[in-house]
Design goal:
Layout lengths: L1 H24 L2 E9 L2 E8 H4 L3 H16 L5 E4 L6
Parallel strand pairs: 2-3
Antiparallel strand pairs: 1-2
Helix pairs in contact: 1-3
Length: about 80
């Protein structure tokens, strides 16, 4: 199970890495926090953290892109505090 999760996480991070330049270009960023029970936890940073359009970016952009590439993902959530 751990090995399968590692492969899934690697695919998720690859997708995130393709999206990051677009966010950085607008003064934002995101980082991968963890993948658990089909849910990807990310942290929106910079301008993205306070943007009024963050929910749209998260669901219609980031979540859509990750789910297109990684079938095991059912949802993407932004976390503000540290997640264990």
């Amino acid at each position: 199970m751990k090995e399968k999760n590692d492969k899934i996480e690697k695919k998720i991070i690859e997708v995130i890495d393709t999206l990051r330049p677009y966010l950085i270009n607008d003064g934002g960023d995101l980082e991968f926090v963890k993948f658990e029970d089909g849910i990807v936890y990310i942290r929106m940073m910079g301008a993205c953290a306070d943007c009024m359009m963050m929910d749209v970016t998260l669901k219609d952009g980031i979540e859509f892109a990750i789910k297109e590439e990684v079938s095991e993902v059912i949802e993407v959530r932004n976390v503000i505090e540290d997640v264990e």
